[in-house]
Design a protein that fits this description.
By secondary structure, this protein is mostly helical. The chain has 9 helices and no strands. The protein has helices at residues 3-13, 22-45, 49-70, 76-100, 104-127, 138-165, 169-190, 195-218, 230-247. The longest helix has 28 residues, at 138-165.
């Protein structure tokens, strides 16, 4: 093995996030759907409210982030646990910003978009890279998880904005966000557009897709949903995620995305 190959292997081994393959996106969409239903279960079904729900899930998320950063290598259980925690706190935080603060879905989406872009800008200015494969040290990881939190929260607000404010409904939202993700896939396969930009665009869009799917499953029939149990839905999605983590290969990222 030459020095370049050895350096590449060492770099790959030190990556703390998973390789971006089809399995990653399947688990990510399931995790975002779980975050929507799980967040609603605590804030609505348990009647704890958006602020209390946000504080609960924020504490869980911070604990997972510290564990993830302290881990010496990529751990799929820690990683996906942190993703689920981020998407759940993103659900309750977006609902708190949009509804409790009274700025609406449009204002909440605009605010969260600015926070997301600001996080990416500071990350790039500080470390010189925002690709997944560059997440190998504590500083990059903090930026990575901060950016993910804003993207998850923005995704929830966007899902509500399309489904409710724009009047597209949950089915319309699924078609819109599913179509946008399909467009990104086509661009990935047929163009040379920056892969990191495409990754973050897809990462953000999977969240509103999961949000509208989650709302479609648990909202009342009168509101266009199926009125399924939030507790049962959360359990089924969690089991599906665990099975996929066990079945699908979980490898650290090897190249910029």
């Amino acid at each position: 093995m030459n020095a370049s190959a050895a350096s590449h292997d060492a770099s790959s081994a030190s990556s703390k996030v998973p390789e971006i393959v089809l399995g990653f996106w399947i688990i990510k969409i399931l995790a975002t759907t779980l975050g929507e239903i799980g967040g609603d279960a605590v804030t609505m079904s348990m009647n704890l409210g958006y602020l209390v729900g946000t504080l609960i899930f924020a504490a869980v998320f911070i604990a997972f982030v510290f564990a993830q950063i302290r881990s010496p290598q990529f751990n799929p259980w820690l990683y996906w646990g942190t993703i689920i925690a981020s998407t759940t706190v993103g659900t309750t935080l977006a609902d708190f910003v949009d509804r409790s603060l009274g700025i609406g879905y449009t204002g909440g989406s605009a605010l969260l978009l600015m926070l997301l872009l600001g996080s990416l800008f500071l990350w790039y200015r500080t470390t010189g890279a925002i690709s997944v494969a560059s997440v190998r040290d504590a500083r990059s990881e903090w930026f990575y998880w901060l950016t993910i939190t804003f993207s998850q929260t923005l995704g929830t607000a966007l899902g509500d904005w399309v489904a409710d404010t724009r009047g597209m409904g949950y089915t319309g939202g699924m078609l819109i966000f599913g179509g946008l993700l399909a467009l990104i896939l086509v661009l990935y396969l047929t163009t040379k557009i920056n892969r990191t930009a495409l990754f973050w665009a897809a990462f953000v869009l999977t969240r509103p897709l999961g949000a509208v799917v989650g709302d479609f499953l648990d909202k009342p029939v009168a509101s266009g949903g199926l009125a399924l149990s939030r507790y049962t839905g959360s359990l089924v999605l969690l089991v599906a995620i665990v099975v996929l983590i066990l079945v699908l290969p979980q490898r650290p990222a090897r190249q910029p995305h």
